[in-house]
Amino acid sequence: MSFPLSPRARSGPHRRSLLAVAPAALLVAGCSAGSEDSGASGGSRPSAADRARARAARDSRELAERYDAVVAAHPKLAERLRPLRAEVVRHAEAFGETAEPSPSPSPSSGTGSPSASASAAVPAVPAKEKDALAGLAAAERELADRRAKALLDAPGELARLLASVAAAGAAHVYLLTEA
Predict the structure, then answer these.
(1) What are the angstrom distances between the C-alpha of 50 and each of 40, 156, 158, 172?
(2) What is the pLDDT of residue 46?
(3) Consecutive 10-residue runs of the chain (179 residues): their mean pLDDT?
(4) How far apart are CA 158 and CA 92, in angstroms?
(5) CA neighbours within 13 Å on the CB side: how many for 116?
(6) Positive or negative, the Cα torsion across 88, 89, 91, 96?
(7) Cα 32-49-98 angle, rounded to 5 deg
(8) Is 144 exposed, middle or buried (0-12, 13-18, 19+ CB in 10 A)?
(9) Helix crossing, 156-177 with 48-73: angle to 10°?
């Protein structure tokens, strides 16, 4: 006598196994045969991959400066933010940044003057710690979203790096929003 299959017994992959495999699938999807072509342009103009890498390094450096501004305004948060800031600095280095960004001298005013470089001015830090953390979380979220979009057009190695750093940024958002 054969027993009927239980309604819970399903064929095919289970949700947990899909969640466990998804990050690896994302990394494999970033592989391409043309990943070595990032520096193949014959002119002195940087390739699209080089420009994307420089932009990602600059974005990480600016985010580290934002962390510095929050720590300067709220010293009690320094211990909590130190590991996240250190990781952001490592991201900048992974994208090709050569020097650790220097701490900002003081929290900037919200007006911000146009600078000679393309760097955006660090916005004013809110007076409440909770609001300052929410601002950092929003900056991390926005940057992670931008990187996730940019990886679609990036060659293999850069796409994998962008995916990894975007995932780390999403984890930072979670850590910043947890009480």
Answers:
(1) 11, 13, 9, 26
(2) 79
(3) 56 46 44 43 74 94 96 96 97 82 43 42 86 96 95 91 95 90
(4) 13
(5) 0
(6) positive
(7) 120
(8) buried
(9) 20
Here the tokens at position 78 are 């320094």
CA gap 162, 154 in Å, rounded: 9
Residues 6+ apart with CB under 8 A from 131: none
Q: How far is CA 35 from CA 28, 49, 53, 89, 96, in A?
A: 13, 10, 14, 25, 17
**What is the chain's length?**
179
Task: Extract the tokens encoding 169.
Answer: 């940024």
